[in-house]
Amino acid sequence: MMVMNYAEDGDLRRYVQRNMDTLRWKDAVEMLCNIAMGLLNVHKNGTYHKNLHSGNILKFYGCNIADFGLCGPSSSSEPRGVYGSLPFVAPEVLAGGSFTAKADIYSFAFIMWEISSGKPPFSDRPHDHSLALDICHGFRESIVPGTPLFYEELIKKCWDADPSKRPDAEEIIDALLSPYAYQRRLLGLDEYSLNTVDEIDDFDAFEQIVASRISNTQYPVAPDIHPFAFYTSRFLLYPNLPTPTNSTYLAEPSQTSYFDLYNPTNQVEEIITFEEYDTHCPPELSETESDNEIEEEPYIPPPPMMHRRKSIAPPPMIPTS
């Protein structure tokens, strides 16, 4: 049995929704660093949380990961299916793959997105086989307008369909703190620590990037949630899911990356980005110059609803004379 302090502020989801009007990007970075540090401690022991979502993050003296009931190493003897909240479950796990540390990182991406938007992911649609299928095809939430570039880039890396392309917990911490580190070097301040963030809050460029308030004009603080969108952990088993892929196209970046501004030696290359789909339609493969170069993967519809057949009473027996 694990005994923890009482979390007066509740879980992270409730905290974000209650404080969205005062939450700043600096606050988001601090909370996410707490969570990433907790993941780092879990992963360095060769174990994985396996059920990471904003309802399992408690807010007291920072952010603390809770609900370690499923925490442990992966095992080939684990039963089919997964226990969790569908929007936070990595596509390779949904498709029947083994759980790894990178599956926790995928969950972390949607915690980042929820903090920036003020609402839980995929709240406008049922959490069913159709959503699981879309996730495996690379469907993701849209980045909230006004999100700092370093934050947006990190989200996209963490929810990549290829686990090998996701950063580990230590790399996440470095990415979250890199804007602080750069500005501290400009100001000649000592090595960064979370306790000294306020020393550079007055620096205009940094204020615009990290210390500004999170804009929540697009998403209301208390959004309407679909009646079949579930954010408590439950058993998930969706057969016949395809191998996860990114819904991608090659495009020139619309603007210079935040990190490229401060790393002039980096060359801007073609980047892979996620296409935005209508949330009510299954994703289609992107168009290319030659349709013959891509083998289109067949769309697998969700299994039909089974209805119980009505019993038919036998005809009455006619007495024989």
Briefly characterize the structure:
The protein is mostly helical and 321 residues long.
Helical fraction = 25-40%
- Reading the helices and strands in chain order gives HHEEEHHHHHHEEHE
Instruction: Label the CATH architecture.
Output: Orthogonal Bundle
Terminus-to-terminus distance: 77 Å
* Number of DSSP helical runs: 9
By helix and strand content, what is the structural category?
mainly alpha
Under CATH at level 1, the class stands as: Mainly Alpha
CATH superfamily: Transferase(Phosphotransferase) domain 1
Uncertain segments of ≥5 residues (pLDDT<50)?
194-207, 249-294, 304-312
Estimate the mean pLDDT confidence.
73
Adjacency order of strands in the biggest sheet = 1-2
Q: How many domains, as an integer?
A: 1
Oligomer: single chain
Largest sheet: 2 strands, antiparallel
Record field, number of beta strands: 6
GO molecular function, one term: protein serine/threonine kinase activity
InterPro entries: Kinase-like_dom_sf (IPR011009), Prot_kinase_dom (IPR000719), Ser-Thr/Tyr_kinase_cat_dom (IPR001245), Ser/Thr_Kinases-Pseudokinases (IPR051681)
Keywords: Kinase, Transferase
Domain Protein kinase: 1-181
